[in-house]
Amino acid sequence: MAKYFCFSAPKANSSLLAFLLLAAPLAPQVYAQGEAADSAKSTQGVDEGGAGSAQSVPDTAAGTGSLQPIPSPRLQADVPTSDEAHAWLAKLADAVTNREYRGLVTFEHVGVMETLEVVHAIRNGEQVERVRYLTGAPRELISRGQDAQCRRDGSPLSRAGLWSAMGQQNVQNIYHFLMRGEERVADRDAVVMEVRPRDVHRFGMVISVDKESGLPLKSMLVTPGGRVLERFQFVELDLAPIQDSDLQPQSADARESEGGGHCGTLVSRWRLEWVPTGFKAVATQELADGEMLVFSDGLSAFTVFVQALGPNMNYRGRAVRGATVAYMDHIEVNNERYTITVVGEIPDKTAQMVANSVTTKN
Hints:
ten-stranded mixed beta sheet, alpha+beta, six-stranded antiparallel beta sheet, 18 strands
């Protein structure tokens, strides 16, 4: 689920500008996400302050390697989360935090399928993870003690680490969870859970949860209009204890990332006058030229970069690639100019509204 955008925080402007420029030629894809949300809102009568539209359980066309649209019936605001769904949510939250595992994962997004090796272990009460991409450019990341809220890279399971950090009650207040039967994934039995957002400011998901371990074996992220933005799926899963040797780098270009508690201690000078219901500030970090603020609703997350802007710079624009939006604008405070950049797996119009709400605390 999480992309391999390796943002170096002090260089966020240049990295994001490159993201915008690279995405510019893909105009139909860049704006498709906003158009899908607009279409869903106009045809289904979605109220920004009320319940969003529902997604029926999606799937991709077998053997095509491309993500396909799915039908989207209207969501009723009072659909309850069943006791069974509550139980599976608790098992999922525990598994993504405390289970050791290794496996092979396929990850589909923006018309591309990638294969990853994921090794996840617990050492001295902290999560340690090694992720190696087996397709495309060689990439490998080993993270130790990394705070999930501050991560901008890693395995497709990274988003799942937000569940236990934010608490299930908040998640259940802003999403509906419905059981949708069973299926077989990676030669394992799984229950299928549909996650419906209650408003238009976040995406829906369909998660196949392993009956034995509680780990998410498959997950699809979908728009309110029913378009599948990305899908990850285990093709092999091994729940045997992880050896220390399994966590060592397997390639010469491996990067190591230490959590170290450096994220979350800064008292920010910036505030957001508006965020979607349920999103809360979970981490802050000081940058060489500004600050980074991370917000999560317990399942989705976005990051706001506020950085000093040179007198001749005028960054502004947006791009959507798969499920990830990057929206960039600037503000002036006390005759000083700053770049505001919002990056996350949220609708692009929501990212724009967040960027426009950034102001100083004084």
